[in-house]
Amino acid sequence: MTETIARAWAVQRRDGLVLGFTDHDQALSFDGIAFRPDSGLSARALVQGLGLSVDNSEAAGALSDAAITERDLMAGRWDAADVRLWEVDWADPANRRLIFRGHLGEVARSGAAFRAELRGLSEPLNKAQGRVYHPRCSAALGDGQCRFDLSRPGYSAEGAVVLEDGSRLMLSGVTGHDAGWFEHGQLLVLTGAARGLSGLVKADAALPGARREVELWTALGIRPAVGDRVRLLAGCDKRGETCRMKFLNYPNFRGFPHLPPEDWLIAPKVNR
């Protein structure tokens, strides 16, 4: 049987798109997935640890318009995609063994090729567990701990791109919000080639004529075009005062604003 063993990969993006790849010289098909031999995807030797150690490997391949495109990689559409890897008997695909399941980690691109880190199911065990005691809030705005509804009037706005310069965008049609209202918030692209992408807002300025200048911390992988529609979501700087005055949500504040500062903790104590 070892003479008929091949590897087959299934990669599923968060938007539901599933692609199949194989290192065999002919196409394979099982589980409703067609595994193509001409998609330019290969993998390094898989490293799998015993117990709770983290599996790790890499997948490498060539950019292809029919499979994994440069635009999709730049847009982050393959980030955290689900990955399954089988050893399969190409003469009888029903005879197969699942040897890896996880997701794509960091994706790097170089010229016409890419390299993606594979992270196993035990990878989240490396993350710190428990709460962090800090004066600022530990929740993300609008999540299950914060419980704030961002669809409430006044906490979002839509506009159109009138000028784009990397991480800076000029928007029209955004009115009724103070300068800085969207700092620390998000910009979501609603239409155009960059639809579905989002960025974190670094700076937000209100300009005359119902215009808004927004600067993102990092430029989007696909640049919005003039006329594309975007939505801005209000930002939170995690301070208790902001939670109380801007969002009227202080009962759900997840920080500890009355903790002594670090200089108080390390200051020498004077005997009295």
UniProtKB/TrEMBL annotation:
Coiled coil: none annotated. Residues 180-263 form the Bacteriophage phiJL001 Gp84 C-terminal domain. InterPro entries: Phage_phiJL001_Gp84 (IPR011928), Phage_phiJL001_Gp84_C (IPR018964). Pfam families: Phage_BR0599, Phage_phiJL001_Gp84_N. Signal peptide: none annotated. It comes from the Bacteria. NCBIfam families: phg_TIGR02218 (TIGR02218). This is DUF2163 domain-containing protein. It comes from Paracoccus simplex. The lineage of its organism: Bacteria, Pseudomonadati, Pseudomonadota, Alphaproteobacteria, Rhodobacterales.
